[in-house]
Amino acid sequence: MNQNISEAEKMPGNNSVNSIQKRALVTGASSGLGIDFADVLAAQGYNLVLVARRQEPMEILAEQLRIKHGVEVVVQPADLAVPGAAAALKGYLEIRSLQIDVLVNNAGYGLHGNFLETPIERTVDMIQLNVTALTELSYVFGQDMAARGHGHILLVASLLAFQPVPTYAAYAATKAYVLSFGEALHDELRSCGVTVTALCPGHTETGFDAVAGATVSAALRLLTMQPRPVVQSGLRALWKGRASVTAGIMNKFVVFSNRLMPRSMQRAAMKTVLGP
Questions:
Q1: Catalytic residue, candidates 46, 109, 168, 171
Q2: What is the maximum span of the chain, computed from C-alpha positions, in angstroms?
Q3: pLDDT exceeding 70 applies to what percent of the chain?
């Protein structure tokens, strides 16, 4: 976890309501971007609910955040890939009277390899987490936010959402769903006072590759970002009320260049960059 907090990160995310009285829920909070999301939000004064499968690393992070930022942190282990997990989480928080003002839908993972060579059970599990759980969480917490007339939802998509990607076929498709879903919800919920933003990171220095079973090519290594700037980019866009944001100048260039390429060239380029 990055210990250097900028002045911008110390500013409350929502100027209309004091963030010290508000609470953010971060999924996938045991590793990767989830750690930095939690740290930056705590620095901005948000109390936290951390959700992931692994409890021990979240407990360690929670204690660090309590000491460092003086915020309340609740740790709730949950496997969001299990059907019904989102509703169960919402029920648990209601029992404890914990209201969620900011939802960071960060939990997810990828699978690298040819589709037919990947066990279908793993692919279905990934789709359940990346798509179904994210959708259910957005629904159950978005309902409360809309009823209150304010709230923020950040959905973590991917640079791979913008084109079909051989060897990441199902993963890229899940992230295309997240991007499209997030931008549509942005317009639907804006009149209710709820901001929805889709964040599209490129390759980031997290544990993604190890989980996906991928190696990093030399070209991809040059495009790799650290987690903190990605998180800052996403939250800054959320507070500004943007529908979506691509983190990093080079990644923005990739998205722009896609508009000028035939889709066959997009697939070939991604295969070259990501490796076999």
A1: 171
A2: 52
A3: 80
